[in-house]
Amino acid sequence: MSALLRADELGLIACRVCGLVCRNVPGDERLNGDDVGDAMACPRCGTTLHRRKPNSYARTWALLIAAFIMYIPANLLPIMRTASLNDVDDNTIISGVVELWRAGSPNLAVIVFTASIVVPVLKFLALGALLVSSQLGSDWARVQRAKLFRLVELIGYWSMLDVFVVALLTALVRFSVLSLVEPLPGVIFFGLTVVLTMLASMSFDPRLIWDGRDIDE
Predict the structure, then answer these.
(1) CA 152, 158, 163, 169 torsion: positive or negative?
(2) Among 22, 25, 36, 176, which one is most buried in terms of CB atoms within 10 A?
(3) Going edge to edge, which strands form the sheet with 80-83?
(4) Any stretches that span the bilayer, and where are they (predicted)?
């Protein structure tokens, strides 16, 4: 059977914003996943057209490493302080999970642990695996890796749940008349982690997974 033609072989390029499929862009050549030459704007929305997201590898790695660096103090530093007349207590994410479990709220403890620990770690591992395998030109499990990226994107829409954990922990505190709750530096690093992982996912170009593959039917 004849090989299926790629979009660039057909002279087509899709706008990453509005999805309009345009004809070939003169002077737009692909080189190592990046665009060079004269750029062309989408006739519908005016966005600059690219065959690949520019500098996808470099940007994704930079954002992913920055997110990991922010994730360390996000877990080590306290995220909130609860104070009353008799006690002052600083809570990290893990200590908050432990307190919820001890207080008889195991379901909430699992939700907080999943949103704050499991999901970010899985996103780090998934994006790291996608980057390494794509840069090595691996042909292993391309379909599964493409599905993994779509899963990371789907989780990205719910990444702000990590930030809402802080509000959840605050809401679960039983206040006395003179109680006080205030955020601590861990919240800032936690929020930065969420934003940077979302940007890293957006910077990765899933088409790089398929580069170098001959598709025949």
Answers:
(1) negative
(2) 25
(3) 88-91, 80-83, 180-183
(4) 61-80, 108-133, 154-177, 183-204
C-alpha 207/C-alpha 162 separation (Å) is: 29
SS (H, E, C) 180-193: EEEECCHHHHHHHH
Indicate the DSSP class of residue 210. G
Q: Provide DSSP, 137-183.
A: T--TTHHHHHHHHHHHHHHHTTTTHHHHHHHHHHHTS---TT-EEEE
CA distance 211 to 10: 16
181 DSSP β-pair partners: 82
Residue 120 in tokens: 């970010």
Pairing, β 21-23 against β 88-91 = unpaired
| The pLDDT of residue 1 is above 60 | no
Per DSSP, the residues of 60-75 read HHHHHHHHHHHHHHHH
What's the pTM value of the predicted model, to 2 decimals?
0.75
The number of beta carbons lying within 10 Å of the beta carbon of residue 186 is 21
Angle, helix 161-171 to helix 93-102, in steps of 10 degrees:
50
**133 within 8 A of 145, measured Cβ to Cβ:** yes
- For residue 157, what pLDDT is reported? 63
- With CA atoms as reference, report the closest residue to 56 among 82, 30, 17, 81: 30
